[in-house]
Write a structure and sequence with these properties.
single chain; eight-stranded parallel sheet; 13 helices; 41% helix; two-stranded antiparallel sheet
Length: 337
């Protein structure tokens, strides 16, 4: 049984109107993402689940594709952390299609919102994380010794009639991290601690092939990445267990050590239910490739990455969040979004 764990992989949505939720639902179903009803996220329902699941704190992330919405979303999450400082942390979203805007949001999130870390998506409005335009962004995150959570785009178009969250997210993750590897990002910015969602997607399964063939003469390798670097840089990543533990932990542990495996629930999105999250958590707790102590440590391995959040554990919170509460630096209300 989990107790006092930290969940690195918690999604949220700022308050929305019923009309907006209805429109979102129809758009998802049109893309073969066949959720049965409009989805509404609330902090109260999430905290209720965390209490039942033995989760002490959840790191919140949300990655809207428009800059104003992204900034408002970060503001809203910061307001939740202020209200529930011992239960939530903030991974501030970054608009990685716009380096100047991303740098500005890093500064704002660090100094005004007091974010615990940052969240990025593999493909943000057509720009992948290995794009050279992001060098200044990585340099600043490296200077900050930042923790960066990498998540695929679960709302990408359907493939062969099936929604992206089913399997495409795993391949997008693998493609993106491999591109970052060959771009020299892990070599040049070694002080960033990267956490990759869903046990790294398909990457751990393919990591042996990458180590075997990745430096062959027929593979473009402009930065002359070596076999040793491939092995060491992949091993330096952190992988969360979200929605992949039943079959994902064994290949993940071929790529990273047990202390680089961290707990993720994939909470707060319509593709996760309490039943699927609990089944996935049970797979972590029952995994026989690790000792009981190592399995339990999965829920606490992120503590060293987030000292400020760790310091908030056990602190008395200020009280419940009113969904009508205004938030954000511009005082915008989320109730009509």
């Amino acid at each position: 049984m989990a107790s006092g764990w930290i969940d690195i992989h918690g999604h949220f949505t700022p308050p929305t109107s019923s009309k907006d939720r209805e429109a979102r639902w129809h758009a998802m179903r049109k893309a073969n993402f066949m959720v049965p009803e409009p989805f509404e996220w609330t902090p109260e329902s999430t905290l209720s689940y965390l209490d039942k699941a033995g989760i002490a704190m959840q790191m919140l992330s949300n990655l809207p594709k428009q800059l104003d919405a992204l900034k408002d979303s970060n503001d809203y999450a910061a307001s939740l952390v202020a209200k529930y400082s011992s239960r939530f942390g903030l991974l501030a979203a970054l608009p990685t299609n716009d380096p100047a805007a991303a740098l500005a949001e890093i500064e704002r999130a660090s100094n005004q919102l007091h974010a615990d870390g940052f969240a990025v998506t593999c493909n943000y409005n057509g720009v992948y994380l290995g794009d050279p335009s992001l060098n200044d962004v990585w340099a600043e995150l490296n200077r900050l010794h930042a923790v960066v959570f990498i998540h695929p785009d679960a709302y990408a178009p359907a493939s062969l009639g099936r929604p992206s969250p089913l399997i495409e997210v795993a391949f997008e993750t693998a493609r993106t991290v491999v591109d970052m590897l060959y771009a020299g990002i892990f070599r040049r910015y070694p002080k960033i601690r990267f956490i990759v969602a869903h046990c790294g997607g398909a990457l751990p399964v393919l990591s042996g092939r990458l180590k075997l063939l990745g430096t062959e003469s027929w593979v473009p390798n402009p930065n002359k990445i070596t076999q040793d670097e491939i092995r060491e840089q992949l091993a330096g990543l952190y992988l969360d267990t979200a929605a992949t533990a039943p079959t994902g932990m064994a290949p993940a542990l071929h790529m990273v050590s047990p202390d680089h495996l961290v707990y993720g629930a994939d909470c707060g999105v319509p593709c996760s239910t309490e039943s699927t999250m609990e089944a996935n958590k049970k797979a972590v707790l029952d995994y026989d490739g690790l000792s009981k102590e190592q399995r339990d440590a999965i829920g606490r391995n992120v503590l060293s990455l987030f000292p400020a959040a760790t310091g908030r554990l056990g602190r008395k919170d200020r009280g419940p969040v009113d969904s009508r509460h205004s938030f954000g630096v511009n005082g915008l209300s989320g109730s009509t979004r």
